[in-house]
Write a structure and sequence with these properties.
With about 500 residues, the chain is mainly beta. The chain contains 7 helices and 36 strands.
Length: about 500
Amino acid sequence: MTGKTAPPATEPAPATPKKEPVPTPKEEPAPAPAAEELPAPEHPPATEQPTAPADKRAPVPTAEVTPASEEGPPAPPAEPQAPAPEPKPEKPKAEPPSSPLSLAVEEVSENSVTLTWKAPEQTGNSGLDGYVVEICKDGSTDWTAANKEPFLSTRYTIQDLSSGDKIHVRVKAVSASGASVPATLEQPVLIREILQLPRIRMPRHLRQTYVRHVGDAVNMMIPFQGKPQPEVIWTKGNQPLDTSRINIRNTQKDTIFYIREAQRSDSGKYELTVRINGAEDKATLDIRVIEPPGPPQNLKLVDVWGFNVALEWTPPVDNGNSEIKGYVVQKSDKKSGKWFTALERCARTSCTISDLIIGNTYSFRVFAENACGLSEKAAVTSAVAHIKKTKTAYQPEKIPQRDMMEPPKFTQPLTDRTTTRGYSTHLFCCVRGFPQPKIIWMKNQMEIREDPKYIAMIEQGVCSLEIRKPSPFDGGIYTCKAVNPLGEASVDCKLDVKVPQ
């Protein structure tokens, strides 16, 4: 073992002076593992070990080890703790960025291919300098860079390719610390024109009638698709458009229809055709340019009666290229001269104006209304309506005389009651009659006169008798009699007064 370990013993010797700053006292408590794990620093004295066991002297090897520590403490740095700090200075080394993500083909033409991808998850401490796109023909292993300098965009178009070729594509992320592992497309890309049938993608708001006011600008963008570049044709009534009024601008993906100031004559249906080698798609665009309508015609004051006026008229000659929604009727009295709206959105061509003021003279006018608004002018009545004052004489209503005389009649009789001695009680009944009857209260057929123990009252035909703190002596039959010139009536009841036990 000594022969095998001797060569490395000479190598760590120069390494030991570099590791002198390691403190020796902390490593002395473990001399045995140090000798087993790193025999290299102890090999020089190992040649003298056979003399040590022959003499059986323990101090001899210890004396020989001490000069080795004087030459440069090799044992402490050779312990397992010494190599641990060696990888630490390697951590700050910059690592290359990770691979770009989601590499995909966006578009392919007969001589180019457009790629897209996402930035890598890790760009390293030095940051990202850009990307390098490399291509390789199918069947070859020679990769060539498509861009001369790195760029930071995640989209790139490779130009000047040959139609019909199959190429492999990969993208590397580049930084100051190096290039990443390339992101490669799984399948080769065939360079050829991808045909796509023409199709017009009409916006939803243009699928219905497109309404604008006179003088407004008309600006519409209609997208379409198709490959190769389709031919775009606009017509109106199977005739080419008037380029002096209508501007058409076409791009690879849409067409723009523009009129600076719309006129009524611009209304109509326009046909859009997108064509590629005989294949085509068509769409119709309906444009309506509107303006306020003209005034109603033939406004007449038909009749005036009481507080009311009847009017009639006919629809306007020009509806402003829009349906008439209704009419607005206004009135003006001669005294103030101001116009006030009497009816709004009148759907018919006749109306009745009510609640006019007596003695006033009124004029009337009517406006027509469409989607653009009210007509600029109104139809005014040629005649005026004068609300006359009518002479009326007050005639009081004749009310027939009615005989209200009636003999007394009890509508609610007395009811028997039971009470306790010392607690006041009331007796009630109701009576009617005209003239108002006289009420007489009796006890056991004896009239109750002015006795403070009894309080008799009548109000609105309700008769009441209060018996204050009755005693057993106050019990008996009580009678209420009503008398007037036409007759009399009476009701009675029994009152019991109990003595508490």
